[in-house]
Amino acid sequence: MRRILLYAALVLIAAVFIMPVYWLFSSAVKPSGEIYRYPLQWIPHHLHWSNFTNAWHDAPFGSFFVNSMIVTAVGTAIKMVLATGSAYAFTFLPFPFKRFIFLLLLGALMTPGTVTLLTNYLTASDLGWVDTYAGLIVPGAGSAFGMFLLRQQMLALPREVFEAARVDGASHLRILVRMVIPMSRPMMITVSLISVIEVWNDFIWPLIITTTTQMRTLPIGLLYLKSQEGYNDWGAIMAGTVMVAAPMLIVFLLAQRYIVAGFSGGAVKG
C-alpha cells in the first residue's frame, strides 16, 4: 500500500510538470479557435502545422536563431574555459589569499544578476558593445556556479595520480587537459549543459543590450512576435515557443544521464 501511494504521488507530481509542456506542444498545432475553446480541448481535432510557418515568417526567426546559436556556442565555450581554469587553480595551485578570493566568488552566487545589470550596461556602452555580439556574450562569460561545481568534482579526484605526473615532469596545462578534464567528464558535461540552457534562455540582458531586430535572440523574438500591433495568432505564438524550447529539451534528454553522474560524482567530497 505504501508503494502504491508513493507511485500515485510521483504520477501526480509528474503530471504537474508534464501538463503545461503538453499543452504548449498541442496548442502549437491547433487553430486559434481550439485554443480558446471551453471546456479545454486537450487533443487537437486537426493538426495545424501552418502555425510554425506563420511564426517563422511573421518574425525574423532565422536571424533570431542564428544569433542564439552564436551567443550560446561562444558564450558557453568561454564559460567552460574560465570555469575549468579557475576550478583547477583553486584546487591544485597555491597562491596568496586563495581562500578569501574563493569566498568572494561564492558571494557572487548569492548576488542576484539584476544587481549588476546597470553596471554591466554602462560598461558595455562605454566600450561600444551595445547591439554587438561582444555585448551579448562577454558580460556573462564568468560562471561562479560552474567553477564551484567543477572545483567540488576536482577535489574528489585522487591527488596521488597528479603528484606522480608532476614528478614525471608534466606541466599544469598537460595535467589539466590530459588527466583532470577526462576524469571530470560527467561534471564537465553537466556544467556545459547548465551554461547552454542559461545562455539560450537569457531574456533580460539581450533585451537591454540590443536595439535592433537583427541582433535579437530567440527569447526576445517571442516578445517581438507577440507585441506586433494587432497580432493575436496564439497558435503561431505557441509554435514559436516550441521552436525556442525544443532544442534545449532535446539537449537535456540526451545528456540527462551525465547530469546525474556529474552531481553524484561531485558530491563525494566537499
From TrEMBL:
Sequence ranges assigned to domain ABC transmembrane type-1 in this UniProt record: 65-255
Keyword line: Cell membrane, Membrane, Transmembrane, Transmembrane helix, Transport
GO biological process, alphabetically ordered: transmembrane transport
Superkingdom of origin: Bacteria
Gene Ontology terms: cellular component: plasma membrane
Transmembrane portions of the chain: 5-25, 70-93, 100-121, 133-150, 237-259
Subcellular location: Cell membrane
Membrane topology, from the record: Multi-pass membrane protein
Originating species: Actinocatenispora comari
InterPro entries: MetI-like, MetI-like_sf
Protein name: Glycerol-3-phosphate ABC transporter permease
Family from the record: Belongs to the binding-protein-dependent transport system permease family.
Alphabetical list of PANTHER family matching this protein: ABC TRANSPORTER PERMEASE PROTEIN MG189-RELATED-RELATED (PTHR43744), SN-GLYCEROL-3-PHOSPHATE TRANSPORT INTEGRAL MEMBRANE PROTEIN ABC TRANSPORTER UGPE-RELATED (PTHR43744:SF13)
Pfam families for this protein: BPD_transp_1 (PF00528)
